[in-house]
Amino acid sequence: MRRLVLYTVLCFVFICGEVLDGQTASSVLVFDEPGFPTADTAPLSEDLLHRAFPSAQFSSAHELAAGLNDHKTKLLILPYGSAFPEEQWAVIYQFLLRGGNLLTIGGRPFTRPVRAEENKWRLLPETYAFARRLLISDYQETPGSARAPAAINEDEPVDRLEELCWQRAYSVVIRLSQEETSSRVGTSGTVDSELKTLLWGVSQSGRRAAPVIEIDHFRNDYAGGRWVMLNCELDSAFGENPEAAAILAALAHHSERGAELLRVTPTYPLYLPDEAWQLQLQWNQYQQSTLPAKASVVVRHDGDEEIARTVDINAHSFPVNETVTLPTSGRPGFHTVEVRLQCGTDPCGVYRTAFWIRDRAYLLSGPQVTVDQNYFRLDGKRLEVVGTTYMASDAQRLYFRYPNPYVWDRDMKQISDAGLNMLRTGIWTDWDVVTGNTGTANEHTLRTIEAFLMTARQYRLPVQFTLFSFMPEVFGGVNPYLDQEAVRREKDFVISIVKPFANVPFLMWDLINEPGFDNPKRFFATRANGDAVELGIWNSWLLQRYKSRNAIEEAWHSVLPDGLITPPAESDSTAQSANDGGRPLALFDFNLFAQESFAAWAQSIRTAIRGVGSQQLITVGQDEGGALMEPSPAFFKPAVDFTTVHSWWFNDDLLWDSLAAKQKALPMLVQETGVMTETNADGRPRRSATTEAAL
Description:
By secondary structure, the chain is an alpha/beta fold. The protein is about 25% helix and about 30% strand. It is built from 16 helices and 33 strands.
């Protein structure tokens, strides 16, 4: 999996209730310019805007800078769809950067700059240069309300939003993180922002559009700000609807509150039967003052209420961190938690999570996954695998940091209902968190894995669990494959995860996702690491293969310098290497050395897994590079029970890549596949989501 994690959301528009005159004088600024063009949505009349925002300050393009630089201004409203004033972009951007709130009405925001020329406004061609500064890379068209009627988000209600009609919506593709949690490829970003859909368009096949969204920013750029976007083409009749002003006013009031964070996390996602339940409540309203609040906590098991508790929250400042301790019921199984906050008489937040109470008999009674020479089998019946790689829809690869079994259960139900029948998950990042810097999986990690497996068991979903990604973690060692101390530590780590789950019948082990060899700075390639351990083993391998230094020189058509023979350099992979005095023929030997070394590593990890009693299926999740110069199943076949291929890039080579991955007497699974997103020179995707789906 080599793609940055992006949230793709669907968007549309609505019709609301009474005018909410909640804005204080001058805290809301509406951009209002006579003759300014509207793009990708129906224009809104001056009368409608003034009825919707009666206390707002209306500013022309010339006045916009002064208004946005006023510290009293909390919310900017842009009512012209995709269009915005190009000359004022810098001051708009700075306002958002420092945490200003935003409400955009219609269209695809910040894609159609408008320039003042000769006392006229000229609508410029579409560009994503400005939107990308806001981490928005694309908008993709989705159905109108005629095909996908409106359904509100009950946890984030906005008055009468469900009455909205729209011609078409625009799904935003946005990055919600600006900072990596580590320098490793495959890492996740920090949780900088959160996207929620305020209104969906729903058809019989599910949610098809999200015309109204909310993005709350918690850290880094835009911290504290809330953006509410009506990313849709409003119906021309919207302005004539008697509720239109009330809808816009309610959205403005919602936007002006600023970012709000509510998270409730059980100490463990899985408790032992006699352990009390501890919930960590984290609450922050970035632009509000604290008020006395109450948290209503309800725990349910099989739909029946077990415990209801009200907790008073009397904090003097944000953020608020509270620990709620509840007595255990001791009942094994799945327990949901719903927390509702109330500030005075007003609801001010809802959060849902869940946890399991250990039930080993239930876990071990799951379906048995096996293979024959060509197929997977589940409880002895042939299984036509149609699955997905899955971590969590809320935290992606950081689900070990932020486990939420409620989200997993919701997602896996959707996966199962869609007809998918296998999951692939595991550790792509955060080995320091997973181990607590001890080198072996800590208690929280093991309980997280157990809770994940319990959830998958509930939907009869076999699970492939990936232990390493791209390059094994060396845990303080020197070389990921050749340093025996590093390999010993890797085995300790693997055993710490495998041993507690060695008898789970629907669990499989993926030793490593898309491995390269053996330079951690050169993933998806076979390149020398340049360490002393590698140098010594490489020279021993050469002498065993060629018996003499003269034979090596003859094979490489080279004159070797005195001393140890270094692995081929990066320059040896270029066409000019031989003319520049390099050793391009050494690449063949280094690739063979890499193949044999990786195969030996995989076999040693397999032996460690079998040594703790696991007879579960084992594989290596290799990509198309296995048919080129990356570790190939043709060499590591003895270490696996089925082979795989990840076909993302080489769309013209799908058949060849699959044939190269298939080995005699072993089934081959296309473990990851899709059409990799590619961009044009202007940074926009080459293909739409519809085109990619058709491919």
